[in-house]
Amino acid sequence: MIKTEKVLHLKSSRGRKVRVVREHYLREHVPCYSSLCQAQCANEGKVLSGEVTHYVMPDAGVARDFMEILEFREIQGIVFTQTACQAVQHSRGRRQYNRLRSLLKDPRHHCILFANEFQEYSYCPREKGEPQDKWQTRCVYHAAVWYHDHLAGLKPVVMITEDQNAVAEYSSLNCGVYVLCTQEYLQTFWPELQAALELYCSIAQSLQEKGSEGTEREYTEHLPAEVLEAGIKSGRYIQGTLNVNKHRAQHEAFVRFEGSSNKSSELNSDVLVCGGKNRNRAVHGDMVAVELLPKGEWRGRTTALTEGQGEEKGDETQSQPMATGRVVGILQRNWRDYVVTFPPKEETQSQSRNSQRILGTPWDQRIPKIRISTQQADKLQDHRVIVRLDSWDSTSLYPNGHSVRVLGRAGELETEVQTILIENCIHVPPFSEAQLGEMPVSSPESPWSVDPAEVITRRDLRQTHLVFSVDPRGCEDVDDTLSIRSLPPGPRGERLELGVHIADVTHFVKEGSLTDLEARARATTYYLADRRYDMLPAVLSADLCSLLGGVDRYAMSVMWDLDAQTLAVNTVWYGRTLIQSSYQLYYELAQALLNGEEAEVPELGTIRDAKLAQLTQALETLTHVARQLRAQRDKGGALELEGVEVRAQLDEDRNITALVPRQPLEVHETVAECMIYANHWVARKIQESFPQQALLRHHPPPRQEFFNQLQDSARARGFTIDTRSNKALADSLDRAVDPRDPLVNRLLRVMATMAMSNALYFSTGACPVDQYYHYGLALDRYTHFTSPIRRYADMIVHRLLTAAIAMEKGAGPAKALASNKELEEVAQQINNKNRAAQHAQKVSTELFQCLYFRDKDPETDERCVADAVIYTIRANGMLVFIPQYGLKGAVYLKNREGQVVSERQDGGCDWQTGSLQRYLDHITTTTAVGTSTFNLFQHITVRISVQPSRCHSDTIRLEVVSNRPHQAPETQVQTSQPQGARGRSQLVQEVVRQAEEASQQAEEKRGRASKLSTEEREFRQSKCPNLYSLLEEVRELALLDLAACGAGGGGLGAAAQACATSA
Ligand SMILES: [Zn+2]
């Protein structure tokens, strides 16, 4: 090892130049991480494959400015030099550097780090007077030459640089080492990767424009990092995340402060930031430091909005003044990819034409307009484009960004769906060749079969147990099956054996494999209204792991030996099994069997009697057991909540023909209860085995103030809702039944659901034991075990259970388990992805609701007129629920001209000049004609139309037609019974059938909706029309994402966002 000195010229955060001398050690052996190595380097971990045509080595400038291009997974064989990495670290900050590091770590990316400056023969010291960038380029070139020689010339090495002089100087020096500029490189080696070339041009253009900024200051300079840090420590500044009110995006934002570093303890709420100057270039989601304004300048948050009211109008209602401040610095930018709509031609031309700059409007209303330099302004007008932000200088009114990829024309279905994915940070590229290469082979020619060596390690249930599944019709990914049978009586009497058998996914997906990493990154299967994106490749999710009928499958089982009378647990067995499901039932069929109706069971064919009786018997016993289990949980305070769930009915061409609210069958509950039972017992097992590092799922009790709306609304109808505990809440909800209108109870349950927080995954070591409780299910411990095909959490739990079983057998965990800290990080990641999945699903449902109503004329089409129930009163209108479409939304009673809705003699409504008065349980409008009253829980008639938007999503608009119930021409859809009444299944079935028939008839009369083009259909990754099958996770709470409604005050708009989704 040789010791030298290395001189660095660094810039301090105040802009001072510092000269640092560091000791620098050189070694002869520095790993090359290439599989072609001829010199026995200690290459541990990821190595570059030799199966590429060349290796590519970006110089410091390329790594710094064009890393996005190097992130394309298609570009393989990238060697990042230490020189280039340090350049990224020093000039682009921690965030960008971390991005590079995770790229280097990720086995799905073909790139490695070569520590060229530690290599004795590739290191070149900086010469006196040599500019830093020249030196860095020289270093990288030397590294390229060394690398090429080290691999004995087996692979050409291409260095890429933006420095034309370097191309001229180096390109002909060494045979086998090429020097190209980036653009030429992409054109020569990756001509089919058009997206990379386009992105290159976009970034290059943006860099070029950056030099020509104006000098006039639009904003105050941000304070330097060390000043901010000291200010936060002393309590002068407050640190927090900027949250923009989407309904008043340019005007109102809040800073949610984070935790302990905050010393100004009298503050217990958010800090309001008013206007663009005070926001000072902070973007929604950024971590900022704010300084409070003098108390005299404090203001209140806006509490009501009038429909369509411009931001400038000053007559909005404000609440009490609250802590108000201004942003003095940015601690961490949290920019992501944004979908932006390019302006129409008129607007591009009015902007300076030579500079080719346009102002794009982000789809997310909370993000400011973005200035983009482009040569495609004409071509891309009215297109949606992915844009990344580059900078926002104090001299620029808007942030600068560059376009990354064109999604398509705004308003087209495929563009809109891709927009939803990008906006929720959901990345679901097709599975790569390398990932698919890990999969076992199963094709019609050589079908997969069980391995005899594996069979002997498993408990074989094929001959002993009647196993069956119950799923939505047409389900491809069957991850759970059930069995139930009698056991010989024991000393304490009759015994039953209940079995839950779950797809053994982790048998096929080894920890750390590419498939595992991809599944972990996705965390869940994503269900949108018309398609799904699977977490695992189809060969697993629809075939080898899917517990299909009539084939041998590996399973992870939990089997309880129960007292037949009391269901007391005698023993529990956990382990790997081999099963063959005898029946693959769907819910309606299982329910029909239970109801004793004539039903066609495909597996039985013509021979029926005895076998059918056996199956029906099993279903009946299971129903009985599930009722008893449910009753036990009810005693503990389990909640029955309502999420509004709608199913889009599609024809064979996948056009929507109707929106149908989902109706539960009792068999849903039976299956769900067994799954909850299995999840609970697995949670107990893994928590007992690994008290510090098991993955559980808890549901924190809601904050009492969130129940105010529920309690006020219930009181208006004469009910008292006791929210002191889940048991009290469940009991009082059960009592709050209006015999004349079952919807009242359902709406109260919706409101209770909206008050809840999300259930979350956590590591047992990261949370005190008394917080393990699952409030909604009333269980002391809970986890997810039963859906490993579509939830990564369940895969982790399967591995934990396997380790627990091995430990019990005295083997000790075969592999080191994740530490508490690692597990907690994964848990947070999965929680975030779940939130994104729920949100994307909700937004895609709204998209389809808009598509459904978009081509109908609200004035003439009777499907656009519906019955609605008022469930909340607001300052300027009310929130209503439309049972027929499972739709919730705001109805405004005052418009932008100041007119109010007034009732005519015949019950119809129009707009008149007048005033509005809000009360606890009703709202009135007064005009020259008279007074109209709208009461809580009253049924009214509304007209549904679509409010189109060019840059954002379309929205559903509701208007009062009459303040009387809607007289439907056809059979009115009725809703489910309020209570957990067990006799309800038949009624429910009746209702579903009626609803579906009614909508079918209506549809046939009016002809089909417009067809999707072939291209639109081609893009879909999933071929399954199995909509919303996620919602089969029936009982584990329909829960609200609080972030969506917590901010932005009590305005109608904000509250209208609140929507329950299934968790
Ligand atoms: Zn080597």
UniProtKB/TrEMBL annotation:
What InterPro entries does this protein's entry cite? Dis3_CSD2, NA-bd_OB-fold, RNase_II/R, RNase_II/R_CS, RNR_Ribonuclease, Rrp44_CSD1, RRP44_S1
Q: Which domain of life is it from?
A: Eukaryota
| Record's protein name | DIS3-like exonuclease 1
Question: For bias kind Polar residues, which ranges apply?
Answer: 969-979
- List, separated by semicolons, the cofactors it needs: Mg(2+)
* Species for this entry: Oncorhynchus kisutch
Q: Which reaction does it catalyse?
A: Exonucleolytic cleavage in the 3'- to 5'-direction to yield nucleoside 5'-phosphates
Gene name of the encoded protein: DIS3L
Low complexity composition bias: residue spans: 986-1001
User: Entry's Pfam families?
Assistant: OB_Dis3, RNB, Rrp44_CSD1, Rrp44_S1
Which keywords fit this entry according to its UniProt record? Cytoplasm, Exonuclease, Exosome, Hydrolase, Magnesium, Nuclease, RNA-binding
Sorted alphabetically, the Gene Ontology BP terms of this entry are: gene expression; mRNA catabolic process; rRNA catabolic process
Location within or outside the cell: Cytoplasm
Which protein family is it in?
Answer: Belongs to the RNR ribonuclease family.
Which EC class heads this enzyme's classification?
Answer: hydrolase
For this UniProt entry, the molecular function terms from Gene Ontology, in alphabetical order, are: enzyme binding; exoribonuclease II activity; RNA binding
Q: Where is this region: Disordered?
A: 962-1016
Domain RNB stretches = 458-807
- What Enzyme Commission number(s) apply to this enzyme? 3.1.13.1
UniProt lists compositionally biased (Basic and acidic residues) regions at 1002-1016
Record's Gene Ontology CC terms? cytoplasmic exosome (RNase complex)
Taxonomic lineage of the native organism: Eukaryota, Metazoa, Chordata, Craniata, Vertebrata
User: Entry's SMART domains?
Assistant: RNB
